[in-house]
Amino acid sequence: MDATILVNRTHRLPRKAIPQTLVEPEIIFDAPVGDRKRLLAVSAAKGVEALFARGKEEGIYLCGVSGYRSYERQEELYQKKRREQPKETGDPVHWIAPPGASEHQTGLALDVSCQAVDYQLDERFGETREGRWLKRCAPLYGFILRYPKGKEHITGYGWEPWHIRYVTRSLALYLTLTGLTLEEYYEQK
Ligand SMILES: [Zn+2]
Q1: Cα 165 to ligand 1 centre (Å)
Q2: What are the residue numbers of the active site?
Q3: Distance 109 CA to ligand 1 centre (A)
Q4: Cα dist. 124→35, 113, 136, 184 in Å?
């Protein structure tokens, strides 16, 4: 899969879209050894190793929580959610991603957290020193914060300060300078 691929609720991946090579980056994970959540596409794995290593030099200790997720796994999570809450209510940006609509299927996305918020994935992470550092430095290593505040209706997802997506360094820097989401970038093209 191309590192700049657009995946969202309207641009869905087929079941058979599986990253060619998945590897486990050498970073700290809050996930059991052997769990497929610890896998990433090669380019994203290299980028995140360099990003986290830079953080460490600056006293910023980030932790990987969830990387690769297969179509089937997303389907399971989606079905489970639908059983618990048969009717999707409220704002669609807060609905769980249906299978094929999650970027985690590309192996290019990683959910990140830190000790200050007990390794949870919630909005509090965005206010931590680690969360602010991640937002500032991720683009230097090819990652963007994919679901920013205020762009929920463009991305189709709520604000997620913990979700980083590898898009290559040049595109990450371009999107950061212009303030565009990946959706807006593709619309412009
Ligand atoms: Zn995520």
Answers
A1: 8
A2: 160
A3: 6
A4: 26, 10, 17, 27
pLDDT, tens only, 37-88: 999 999 999 999 999 999 999 999 999 999 999 999 999 999 999 899 878 8
| 17 within domain boundaries | no
Starting at the earlier edge strand, list the strands of the sheet with 63-66. 63-66, 109-113, 163-166, 143-145
Tokens of 58: 């600056």
Distance (angstroms) between ligand 1 centre and the Cα of 178 equals 23
Domain harbouring 133, CATH code: 3.30.1380.10
Residue ranges making up the domain that contains 87? 22-188
Number of domains in the chain: 1
Q: Hey, what are 73's tokens?
A: 């796994």
159 belongs to a structural domain: yes
As given in the structure block, the two tokens for residue 160 are 């997620």
